[in-house]
Amino acid sequence: ILMGLASKLHTEYKKSGIIVEQALSFIRTVYSFVGEKRTLDNYSAALDDLVKLRVKQGQAKGLAIGSNGVSFAIWSFLS
Question: Which residues belong to any copy of the ABC transmembrane type-1 domain (predicted)?
Answer without folding.
Answer: 1-79
